[in-house]
């Protein structure tokens, strides 16, 4: 795990190395100061030698300034190294997520990925900074101070060796008891992020149904769960400070008692006793700092494991050994395809699909809610892979193509349209980063988006809020269609993407497709019969199976499901909903 995380240090190796080097130099100077102070007291003050006092005083001042300088340098190096490490770690994780398939994202959940990229990385960053600074400082300080204490008085220094095991056993107890709790807490953070994200995303629905109180109750339950877990962990962690104070005061009392007897016996000087007190503080402070590092490591260990889990995740979709980088045409073949989101042949949501679509053909898809219409088309650009059978595009298995090449030739306007914060031009250029103003205007004309864009004061420079909250559902759909058209794909898939558009505009969009992109294969999923009745062929899905296929007239004559839908819409008006 550590080796994998350390790969993210990269260009910050120099600072990572310099920080402990500077810390070591700082500690050496700090340890020398009590020794020099003892010399000043014994050889200067007690002897009445002011010249010696002045010389040693200057040496002490220089030593303190040098120690301060090394401390500042180590702090700067540690901050650069830890911030850079966290930056690279977030980059590596986000880059990894971009290569995930939908199945991978479903495995983790969006809220869990957000927690790992934020809270978990922050915890690991803090632990990393403490490791390259305090975790180096504490052992070096302990060894150097212990060495100097033995140089001053080896008998009195034995006191430290009696106290250290007590502290070590106590810290081990605290660490082993607190880690499982912190591991649980970070999983609860995933739930908290999910509740908050879901609430903010659906805030209009929450307010329209006056469900604020229920949402606050959900948030309160998760928040209280985190509070209870953290409180339990903190109760264990609070034992560290009393344990440390017990060890410090015990050492102080023992050193005072034995040191006083040694001074009376003439085997120890006042300055040496003063230095021993300083070394007591340094030794036990180093142990206390080490306990802080161990505590942070206990907290970050759970985070590090979660980060490693994300970095180790292999995408369920990947290129073959010799991928194809050109899609010949827009023909599509489903060869006895079945699919399961669980990759379990016993839990199929799409069954025995055998379908062959010619390049340039327009295919309509009709079916009830849960009939797997969206699932069917998501297999074409390999958002998921078929569990059984295979899908071919342009005469080749989709798994033989380079993923980017395939997806560049398959434009999808998904059921849940998404616009990003930025101008209308920014959003349109997702389809083609190099699109000219004329190309964007033409795509918007085809999708009939130019009609409402012309009413905006800033036109194509109008700013779109995150999620497209400042445009209507129909406007959002038309912008997403224009964005897809800018890709100039060989296959265009509209997944119920005109459901919020009036029937007249819907008809104009379909007419524009027929005239402007006749060679593009078009697959239109719709709830309205009027949206697909002019298609070359219409596919009727029921329970994940093909129930019928043919023209509008053929299905009216031969398919009961299609006929029922047609009659209900003509008698009761157009009735449609989201899948």
Beta-strand percentage range: 5-15%
> What would you call the shape?
elongated
| Helical/strand content category | alpha/beta
| Overall mean confidence score, pLDDT | 85
**Rg:** 35 Å
Q: What is the terminal separation in angstroms? A: 42 Å
The major β-sheet equals: 6 strands, mixed
Q: What's the β-strand tally?
A: 12
Helix amount = 55-70%
Low-confidence stretches: 573-579
**Helix segment count?**
20
Strand order of the largest sheet: 6-9-10-3-11-12
Key structural traits:
579 residues, alpha/beta, six-stranded mixed sheet, four-stranded antiparallel sheet, 20 helices, disordered C terminus
Structural description of this entry:
This protein is of the alpha/beta class and 579 residues long. The chain is built from 20 helices and twelve strands. The strands form three sheets. A six-stranded mixed beta sheet has the order 6-9-10-3-11-12. Strand 11 (537-542) and strand 12 (545-550) form a beta hairpin. Helix 6 runs antiparallel to helix 11 (270-312). It is elongated and about 115 Å long. The two termini are 42 Å apart.
What is the compact description of this entry?
By secondary structure, this protein is of the alpha/beta class.
How would you summarize the topology of this molecule?
Elements: H1 2-6, H2 13-45, H3 50-98, H4 102-108, H5 110-132, H6 134-152, H7 154-201, H8 203-208, H9 212-237, H10 240-265, H11 270-312, E1 332-339, E2 350-357, E3 362-367, H12 373-378, E4 388-393, E5 396-397, H13 403-408, E6 410-413, E7 422-423, H14 424-428, H15 437-446, H16 450-453, E8 463-464, H17 473-485, E9 491-495, H18 503-516, E10 521-525, E11 537-542, E12 545-550, H19 552-558, H20 560-572
């Amino acid at each position: 795990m550590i080796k994998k995380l350390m790969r993210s240090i990269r260009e910050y190796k120099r600072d990572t190395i310099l920080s402990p080097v500077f810390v070591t130099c700082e500690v050496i100077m700090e340890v020398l100061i009590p020794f020099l102070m003892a010399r000043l007291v014994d050889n200067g003050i007690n002897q009445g030698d002011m010249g010696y006092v002045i010389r040693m005083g200057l040496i002490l001042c220089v030593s303190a300034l040098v120690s301060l300088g090394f401390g500042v340098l180590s702090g700067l190096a540690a901050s650069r190294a830890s911030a850079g490490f966290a930056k690279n770690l977030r980059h590596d994780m986000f880059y990894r997520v971009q290569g995930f398939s939908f199945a991978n994202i479903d495995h983790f959940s969006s809220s869990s990925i957000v927690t790992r990229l934020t809270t978990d990385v922050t915890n690991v960053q803090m632990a990393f900074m403490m490791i390259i600074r305090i975790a180096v400082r504490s052992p070096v300080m302990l060894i150097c101070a212990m060495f100097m204490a033995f140089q001053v008085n080896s008998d009195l220094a034995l006191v430290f060796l009696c106290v250290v095991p007590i502290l070590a056993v106590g810290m081990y107890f605290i660490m082993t008891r607190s880690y499982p709790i912190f591991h649980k807490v970070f999983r609860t953070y995933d739930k908290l992020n999910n509740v908050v994200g879901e609430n903010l995303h659906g805030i209009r629905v929450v307010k329209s149904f006056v469900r604020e109180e229920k949402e606050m109750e959900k948030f309160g339950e998760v928040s209280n769960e985190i509070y209870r877990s953290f409180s339990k962990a903190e109760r264990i962690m609070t034992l560290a400070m009393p344990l440390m104070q017990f060890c410090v005061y015990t050492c102080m009392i023992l050193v005072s008692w034995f040191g006083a007897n040694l001074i009376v016996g003439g085997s120890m000087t006042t300055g040496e006793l003063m230095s021993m007190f300083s070394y007591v503080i340094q030794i036990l402070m180093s142990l206390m700092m080490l306990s802080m590092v161990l505590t942070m490591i206990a907290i970050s260990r759970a985070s590090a494991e979660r980060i490693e889990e994300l970095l180790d995740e292999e995408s369920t979709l990947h290129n073959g050994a010799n991928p194809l980088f050109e899609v010949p045409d827009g023909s599509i073949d489903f060869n006895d395809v079945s699919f399961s989101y669980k990759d379990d042949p016993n839990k199929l949501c799409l069954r025995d699909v055998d379908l062959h679509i010619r390049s340039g053909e327009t295919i309509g898809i009709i079916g009830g809610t849960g009939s797997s219409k969206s699932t069917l088309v998501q297999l074409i650009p390999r958002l998921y892979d078929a569990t059984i059978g295979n899908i071919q595009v342009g005469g080749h298995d989709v798994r033989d193509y380079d993923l980017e090449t395939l997806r560049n030739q398959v434009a999808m306007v998904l059921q849940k349209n998404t616009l990003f914060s930025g101008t209308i031009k920014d959003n349109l250029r997702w389809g083609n980063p190099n699109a000219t103003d004329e190309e964007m205007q033409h795509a918007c004309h085809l999708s009939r988006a130019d009609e409402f864009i012309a009413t905006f004061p800033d036109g194509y420079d109008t700013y779109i809020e995150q999620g497209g909250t400042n445009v209507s559902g129909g406007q959002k759909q038309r912008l997403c269609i224009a964005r897809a058209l800018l890709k100039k794909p060989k296959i265009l898939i509209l997944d119920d993407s005109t459901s919020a558009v009036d029937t007249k505009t819907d008809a104009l969009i379909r007419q524009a497709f027929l005239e402007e992109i006749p060679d593009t294969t078009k697959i239109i999923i719709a709830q309205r019969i009027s949206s697909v009745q002019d298609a070359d062929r219409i596919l009727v899905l029921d329970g994940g199976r093909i129930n019928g296929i043919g023209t509008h007239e053929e299905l009216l004559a031969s398919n009961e499901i299609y006929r029922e839908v047609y009659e209900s819409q003509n008698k009761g008006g157009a009735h449609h909903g989201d899948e």
